[in-house]
Design goal:
- The complex is a heterodimer of chains A (325) and B (276).
- Chain A has 325 residues and is of the alpha/beta class.
- Chain A is 26% helix and 28% strand.
- The longest helix of chain A is centred in the first third of the chain and has 17 residues.
- Chain B is of the alpha/beta class and 276 residues long.
- Chain B is 26% helix and 29% strand.
- In chain B, the strands form 3 sheets. In chain B, strands 1, 6, 7, 8, 9, 10, 11, 12, 13 and 14 form a 10-stranded mixed sheet that branches. A two-stranded antiparallel ribbon of chain B has the order 2-5.
- In chain B, strand 6, helix 2 and strand 7 form a beta-alpha-beta unit.
- Classes of the chains: A alpha/beta (325), B alpha/beta (276).
- At the A-B interface, helix 3, helix 4, strand 7, strand 9 and strand 10 of A face helix 3, helix 4, strand 9, strand 10 and strand 11 of B.
- Strand 10 of chain A pairs antiparallel with strand 15 of chain B.
- The complex binds flavin-adenine dinucleotide (FAD).
- Flavin-adenine dinucleotide (FAD) sits at the interface of chains A and B.
Amino acid sequence: MGNVLIIAQIQDGEVKKATNSTVTFATEVASHIGGTYSILALGDDLSGQSEALAALGAQKVFLAQADGLDNALAERWAPIIEKVVVDGAFQMVVSPASSTGKDVLPRLAARLGAGMASEVVQVAFNDGKLNYTRPMYAGNVNGTVVIDTPIEILTIRPTEFEAFSPTGASPVEKIDVPQAPEILGKIEFLGFEKAESTRPDLAEAGVVVSGGRGLKSGENFKLIEDLADLLGGAVGATRAAVDAGYIHNDFQVGQTGKIVAPDLYFAVGLSGALQHVAGMKSSKVIVAINKDEEAPIFQVSDYGVVADLFKALPELLEEIKKVAK
Amino acid sequence: MKILVTMKRVADPDNANKVKISGDATQVTSEGLEWKPNPFDEYGVEAALRILEDGVGSGKLRGEVVVVTIGPEEVTQQIRQCLAMGADRGILVSGDDDKLDAMIVARTMAKLVEKEQPDLVIMGKQAVDGDSNQASQMLAEILGWPQATFAGHVEAPEDLSSLTVTREVDGGAAKVKVAFPAVLSVDLRIVTPTGVNNNVATGKDYQEGPRYASLRGIMKAKKKPIDKLTLDDLGVDQTLQVRTVSFTQPAARSAGVILETVQELVQKLQDEAKVL
Ligand SMILES: Cc1cc2nc3c(=O)[nH]c(=O)nc-3n(C[C@H](O)[C@H](O)[C@H](O)COP(=O)(O)OP(=O)(O)OC[C@H]3O[C@@H](n4cnc5c(N)ncnc54)[C@H](O)[C@@H]3O)c2cc1C
């Protein structure tokens, strides 16, 4: 039996769908070895999220509320999570592979002397142990790992687990947050600069339209945005497009950026480098528009159009508007 | 000021789709692929040089850059590459990737920190073979140091008394100021022309990406010292916490159809894929 502690992902005051996917992962763990799951959320004031968290079928929802917790400093979060783990005798801590999960959980693992697996996409049970499958080499190899410590720490890839549908209401407990540790004297949070977007969250969108270096400028990226807006989708980009300053880095899709798996992915003016493909190859339908018929993106796309994007995109917009009518 | 930069060698990342899995599924082999410094670690070396340089590309450092690695004897080649960029010396701890996990790497680095007493440790945010993104955060905890991970931009005051770090995080950028000693993990944007500002090398921007070694740099690197150590020399606890039991090749996506017109595309998306 294993009791799992889930670290909730909250962004812009919203419990992210990635949290629901993590719940699904926890239910899969329970199906193998029994046990229950609880949820821990950390923030300045979680009164607005408490209800949504309580609807996730957990044994218990823990709220850690104190000034500054929204800043998610690993130095501050790790000892709080540690306390909940120790007090509740949890055997597993799991978080979505968000930037906060990636930042905080290894620090927690080192505090607890616990082994950790990152970006898990599948869990199975073999020879008395949980086996975790995780992509390596930019998704070109799957490694299956086991963890040999009494407490196991994991981040999971939310796109690989269905979002759990809310049910019932769990008891909510506000925990006593331990004092800020001394190390906070060595790191000061100066501020957060939001990547403004009026579109759906890249990680959750049903449609993603991504542009690459072929767009040639930030102004031209409007073509990508127009298509995304027409379809109610999110905008993505390659590293080359981000590095060239066409778009904010928060929109980079790939091995070292965001992992997306929408129903429909448009890859426009991007070559399909394996680092990019690693972040979008689980999309249901992939469309590529590229003027070079040899571009590797055509190897992974369901539909390809060999064309100049500056001609094809406006045409595509018109055509979609026509059928939408 | 002394900066320790960690570096792992990886099979050519631009050809990661050519790695193979051994018949018994216990090994990833990369025969025929060139070994390279993990790109994020190479960016770490570039960041260290930019922090310490007294002028853009001057090569004159206001401190020392030490490149440390765990790996087989042959990694001296990738260490020399970093030394040719301008790092001062190297440390090679012999070790076998199969017998390491992130925590052993972090423990090893902690021992090296004890020995070398750097002010700053810079690590790539992830090695692009294992893709774990754990070691720097674990090291920071073991040392009791602050961590500034996923740094896309750093700024240091002229006297190098602290570091202001812009971290690339979900939804935007988080800015933190860290006091030394600290651990920094670097992201891609750190090697854009304005990724590092040390308030000395002003007026000019760096080139995009990590610097190429000059011929002179390569010659000088041959004479720079590389210390060789073992995990036992350092007294590292080598108990594995995470074991890989098997490797498999994920199912590949197959190429679809090439369409002649945008009209045809819209029709397929509507009638066949049913996504419009
Ligand atoms: C450590 C590391 C991590 C990385 N992580 C990522 C990552 O997470 N995500 C990522 O995306 N990349 C990543 N990269 C970069 C990756 O290797 C590629 O360099 C990058 O994806 C290329 O971007 P691109 O396809 O936009 O540009 P290019 O490769 O230059 O491709 C541009 C494409 O546009 C096409 N084109 C040009 N003009 C037109 C036109 N008018 N009409 C139609 N098509 C046109 C060209 O035919 C070409 O195929 C990483 C690299 C490294 C080293």
